[in-house]
Amino acid sequence: MKKSLIYKTAFYLMFLVMALVGFYKGVWQATGSKDAQWYPASLLAKNIDLYNYYLEHFNEWFMRSVPNYYFQFYYLLQPISYVSWDTFKLIWFLINCLLLLIFLIQIKKDFNFGYRQMAIIFLPFFMGYPLILSLENGQSSILILILTYFAWKCRDNKILLPILLSLLTLKYSFGIPIIFGFLLMGYYRSVILSGLITMIFPLVYSLQFKLNFVSTIFLPLKVNTIATARPLGSGPSDLMSLHGLLTDEPLMGINTLTIGLIVFLALFTFITIKFHLNERTIFICSILFSLFGFYHFGHDYILFLLILPFLYRFKYFKILFGFLILFCYSPRIIRLLDIITSETLDVREFMRNKYLVIFNVCFLIFYFFLLIVNDIQSKNKSDSERDTRTNGKLWEYS
Question: In this structure, how many other beta carbons lie within 10 angstroms of the beta carbon of residue 318?
Answer without folding.
Answer: 9
